[in-house]
Design a protein that fits this description.
Length: 448
């Protein structure tokens, strides 16, 4: 305890000075480190409460919209029989099960039991997985039924006119489970980051983050696959005729653009349209504008397999205008030129990435086959019983893949300091999920 004396000095004529004595209690001495830890925990607690409040409010709105779908569409359609059962299940999938699971989750969230709620919710995420995988099919079937069935079209319009829908359409409500998974992913990460590791809910929330992230990644992969499918369909419609098949399993669209081809005999360069996919390069030319039906389309000229391609940059290492890249195949050589430096650099990078990815897949498969081979003694013993023709055939089938892999990887290293420019209408190859690429079959174009 310490004292402080306050007052005024005595004036002339005063008998004694007027002094006031004030006392203060000692303040608690808290170390700086302890105070900073307490402040951090208080910030965590405030953020956690704010995140929890937003989660509960958004979950309440989400369950209300799910109830609109199940009550005014699923149940009434089932009672009226407007749609067949298989069509109804194809459109709405597992939405009713999702609604029941989320009602239970909402009860736990409103009680503040976030960890327990999501711990019991995650084992039922397979309902969301089913819904996610069926979503694109549901959109197509809904569009078909709206075009074909006048009764369903009228029923949908009457239900959406109810005041409970607040002018929402069925097309606006069906994507809600996909959007909600992405929101759960963000909410759970915020809750986990602002929960102390000593809290019993920390482990439960951490497990929920991992489980929900898998479904969120599945949604992104499905959306990317659907976008790629639309790109393949678009390019297929651009090409004249139906003999050039681009819709092959495992094929991914990368980019497209006009490039000039340099003929080997030094004649004039000609502009060509090129479409780069994960396993092939398609060369096309513009059809005659006077054609009655194909005036706005392209005619496919060549389909080059990237598996056998070696790419090299002839010009364009410097910052001069334009550049030239060389593509060497097993039976042909292609020189591509562009006056845009950024564009030719991006084509070079895209080609190198596509070829390198193909060679990496071939290398992994080849090593796996080698690991599955029998030991040397067993192989020696089997050579006496197995026909010599089968051994020669297997050897011929294995050796070219080794040579193609080595030559492809070594020749596709981009030079240091190269600028990676972006061009219009392209998709990053790294975003495409890994899968076996298949070359186009049945094409009327010349496949080199």
């Amino acid at each position: 305890m310490f004292f402080q004396i306050k007052g005024t000095p005595p004036r002339s004529g005063d008998s004694a000075p007027s002094w006031t004595v004030m006392s203060f209690s000692p303040s608690p001495c808290v170390p700086a480190g302890v105070r900073s830890i307490q402040e951090q925990r208080e910030r965590w607690d405030r953020k956690r409460k704010r995140t929890g409040r937003e989660l509960v409010q958004s979950e309440q709105r989400y369950c209300e919209k799910l109830e609109l779908i199940t009550t005014y569409f699923v149940e009434i359609l089932k009672a009226k029989g407007t749609l067949r059962q298989d069509i109804r299940e194809s459109i709405f999938s597992s939405i009713k099960s999702i609604h029941l699971v989320n009602q239970t989750l909402l009860g736990h969230l409103e009680d503040g039991k976030f960890g327990v709620g999501f711990d019991q919710f995650c084992p039922h995420l397979h309902f969301y997985t089913t819904y996610v995988d069926n979503f694109q099919t549901a959109k197509k079937i809904l569009a078909v039924q709206l075009k074909k069935s006048k009764a369903f079209r009228r029923f949908k319009k009457l239900q959406e006119a109810r005041p409970e829908f607040h002018k929402l359409k069925l097309e606006d409500l069906l994507p809600l489970p996909l959007e909600r998974i992405q929101q759960y992913n963000n909410f759970l990460r915020d809750l986990t980051e602002n929960t102390s590791p000593d809290n019993p809910e920390f482990q439960q929330l951490s497990r929920a983050v991992s489980a929900v992230s898998e479904v969120a990644q599945r949604i992104q992969d499905n959306a990317r696959s659907h976008e790629n499918h639309l790109q393949l369909q678009r390019v297929q419609k651009l090409l004249k005729g139906r003999k050039t098949r681009l819709l092959a399993p495992g094929r991914w669209y990368i980019r497209e653009g006009w490039l000039k081809t340099v003929p080997p005999k030094g004649t004039e360069t000609k502009p060509k349209m090129f479409f780069l996919f994960s396993d092939i390069l398609v060369q096309a030319k513009r059809c005659s504008p006077m054609h009655p039906t194909n005036g706005d389309k392209l005619a496919c000229q060549r389909v080059y397999p990237l598996k056998e391609c070696i790419v090299d940059k002839v010009f364009g290492h410097t910052k001069s205008q334009g550049g030239l890249i060389s593509l060497t195949f097993s039976r042909a050589k292609l020189l591509l030129m562009s006056t845009d430096q950024e564009d030719i650099n991006d084509w070079y990078r895209s080609l190198c990435l596509a070829i390198g990815k193909l060679n990496t897949k071939n290398t992994v498969v080849h090593r796996r086959e080698e690991l599955l081979r029998p030991p040397l003694r067993a192989a020696t013993h089997s050579q006496q019983s197995a026909p010599a023709s089968s051994q020669t055939h297997s050897r011929k089938r294995t050796m070219p893949s080794e040579q193609g892999t080595e030559s492809g990887v070594s020749s596709c290293r981009p030079p240091a300091g190269e600028s990676a420019g972006g061009a219009s209408k392209k998709m990053k190859l790294s975003e495409a999920p890994s899968g076996r690429s298949q070359e186009s079959s049945g094409s009327s174009c010349i496949i080199l």
